[in-house]
Amino acid sequence: xxxxxxxxxxxxxxxxxxxxxxxxxxxxxxxxxxxxxxxxxxxxxxxxxxxxxxxxxxxxxxxxxxxxxxxxxxxxxxxxxxxxxxxxxxxxxxxxxxxxxxxxxxxxxxxxxxxxxxxxxxxxxxxxxxxxxxxxxxxxxxxxxxxxxxxxxxxxxxxxxxxxxxxxxxxxxxxxxxxxxxxxxxxxxxxxxxxxxxxxxxxxxxxxxxxxxxxxxxxxxxxxxxxxxxxxxxxxxxxxxxxxxxxxxxxxxxxxxxxxxxxxxxxxxxxxxxxxxxxxxxxxxxxxxxxxxxxxxxxxxxxxxxxxxxxxxxxxxxxxxxxxxxxxxxxxxxxxxxxxxxxxxxxxxxxxxxxxxxxxxxxxxxxxxxxxxxxxxxxxxxxxxxxxxxxxx
Length: 393
Description:
With 393 residues, this protein is α/β, with parallel strands linked by helices. It is built from twelve helices and 15 strands.
């Protein structure tokens, strides 16, 4: 692991064919990372420095973000945020909605338990409030530590872990599906996912995919690294041209049902959707210590947090596998916690709509349909246009 508790390049790709190939992979990776840093640096600054009008005003319109229209009247948007300057998508779309009254519910995709990031965010919040007084910004925090940090820099924040959004209708125990793997790990191709920690597990299935954190040649080397571990290790995704294709949520749930234990191996991220997917499917969990809030719904009866060492991970998996805790028990106890917090958020949202002038009756049921509906990505330009369209319902 490196100083950030992530996989090193060697741990990710393993031995390569030749010294020349290794040098080429390292060089292309370095160039890829440099290009990404420059792109991210420009993207996160643009919304704060562009003029409100004129030919340069739309230079941030191509920034990709996700926004769910929770309500059109009053206007309430649910927006995932993250990265080194988390509010840049809010600033970009907010510039286009400056004349409208709007409320933004911000969901941290990545842990805000980073004081330097939160300090900058406090300055950005002050900048935003001064320029867009018709907007209200509310953070839905993944744990109490995150909430306290955001409140400490002037943010309006409440505890509401984003794993509440996982659909129990999709992720659930399935009848008559045999368990053929000791564990499943749902983790994208990324150094922060630390796949190598699972390599001592006897029977392991991976659900993985690429979002471009590694170059395609390096990602292919990583896939070869996973494939070489053991005849009883498997990648559930279809492999096309050396890279994993995507699975549907239903296909992922089927893979979960074929495993005895779910793995959470990163040191820091967001609340980790797959941790709740495991629990909804009735899987016990082996996790490493982490920041981000994925442990909010953990229970020591079926969730073990162990040191980030391959042997410790394997032993914990063996313990939980051998206990054979009924899946419906894990799912049922998890849903009890989830439903209580969903009721709290639903009541909060009803009060928010009333405070913003809505004459609609209070919400009677959970108003979100799952993360697939909430995480539809588009450009800032497209989202601003969508928000401005009349309600077609």
